[in-house]
UniProtKB/TrEMBL annotation:
This is Biofilm operon icaADBC HTH-type negative transcriptional regulator IcaR. PANTHER family: ACREF/ENVCD OPERON REPRESSOR-RELATED, TRANSCRIPTIONAL REGULATORY PROTEIN. Residues 4-64 form the HTH tetR-type domain. PROSITE patterns: HTH_TETR_2. InterPro entries: Homeodomain-like_sf, HTH-type_Tx_Regulator, HTH_TetR, TetR. One of its GO terms (molecular function) is DNA binding. Residues 27-46 bind DNA. The keyword GTP-binding does not apply. It comes from Vibrio ruber (strain DSM 16370 / JCM 11486 / BCRC 17186 / CECT 7878 / LMG 23124 / VR1).
Amino acid sequence: MSSMKTKDRIIFAALELFNELGERTVTTNHIAAHIQISPGNLYYHFRNKQEIVRAIFELYSSELLERFAPPHGHKESLSLLKHYLDSIFTLMWKYRFFYANLPEILQRDEDLHKSYIAVQEKLRHNLVSIVNRFIEIELIEIADSEMESFVTTLHMITASWLSYRAAMSQKAQVTEEVIHQGMLHVIAVVKPRATVGGAEQLQILEEGVRAMHTE
């Protein structure tokens, strides 16, 4: 059990440091020092930093697919919308180093890139189910012919918002406010497809996100 515990500590320490300092600047020695273990102890669990990145990706993948599972039961529509919007924020914030440097991280690890594509394909499949559920409960109206491009647009915003922002600003700091702006863009894309009832609920969500800026 203790070895599992150390392994988890390494993963969570790395995630914290990658988010705070940027993955490129953090070494395995930094990670070991952060949790006060020897570099040898770290190498017992992970041969190199890339293996730690992969372990973080596994965590991210399972949380992503769990949070964006197709809805079951008769959850009230506003709470359903809020659940998915909150999940976007949580994932972007918790794994922000990954979102902000996605192309670079994937380019240097072919196996990780394959895993990423496989997970994103599952996510796309789930997104179609989620959007279909929103159509069923009359939150939005989308023609079958437009479903593919609509889901692609939502997927594109959430997957690449932080790397887009990093490219557009020399201050690459990811703040909660930057993620809130991404959430507002998601709402803006959904709004034109909303029913009257759906538009009211999106407005409530939008006001909630905007209020977070002023807290």
